[in-house]
Design goal:
- The protein is of the alpha+beta class.
- The chain has helices at residues 2-11, 31-36, 58-66, 72-82, 95-102, 104-116, 140-149, 183-199, 201-207, 216-230, 232-244; strands spanning 43-50, 120-124, 127-132, 153-163, 169-170, 173-174, 180-181.
- The strands form two sheets. The protein has a four-stranded antiparallel β-sheet. The protein has a three-stranded antiparallel β-sheet with strand order 5-6-7.
- A hairpin with a 2-residue loop joins strand 5 (169-170) and strand 6 (173-174).
- Helix 3 (58-66) crosses helix 4 (72-82), helix 8 crosses helix 9 and helix 10 (216-230) runs antiparallel to helix 11 (232-244).
- The two termini are 42 Å apart.
Amino acid sequence: MKAIQRWILDNILSSFTVHTHAYGFVKERNIKDNAIAHTKKKLVLNIDIKNFFPSIKFEHVFYIFYDHGYTKELSYSLASLTTFKGFLPQGAPSSPCIANILCNTMDKRLLALATKMNANYSRYADDITISGDENIRDYIDTIKSIIINEGFDINYRKLRLQTNKNMQEVTGLIVNEGVKVKRKYKKRLEQHIYYCTKFGVYSHLQKIEAESKSYFKEYLYGMANFIKMIEPDEGMKFLKKLDDLNWGN
């Protein structure tokens, strides 16, 4: 089924329009691109869509294909192949692209509102960000009403209005002054490298009760490469330290 969904993604869905301000699961766009527009702002508003994929139903997916000129029969078949129990399944290769396509109207509406506010707008999957000046406070109810009107629910526990007097985050990245990785994330990698250098890799794995983790090396390089994507110079320093480790001990 995943192979079929991948085929639908590559041969059908990839030709559909995805909004320019949608950054999640889009080729040549990434989490850093999503955060860049929100640096050095007085206010950063984060709104999380609740149950993002499950809130997209079979009929929504059906009309994606039908409205693009596919017959009712083919649209039904394609929607059946890309949904599960009447909803968009999380983890399916085709689901992120379908969700982005369905959010196109919402993205247009929220971008138009942000432009009116002289603010910036972006969406990374279910994570919506609007940043700008103090007047954002006056439009929060309007922003929420647009999201609800487009058929989505809001996770109010994750709704945050962040001022520049405190740490401002966008999809886990710090945006107060440029885009940076959280210090906590870098500190965790630093500690792993320190203990691997001091005691040896295997002894460190025993210490943290993870000696069976054969992917530990890849895990650390993955962390370093993520830092490199966001902060190239910092990432290169971590990669150099990992290269210098004796992975055989």
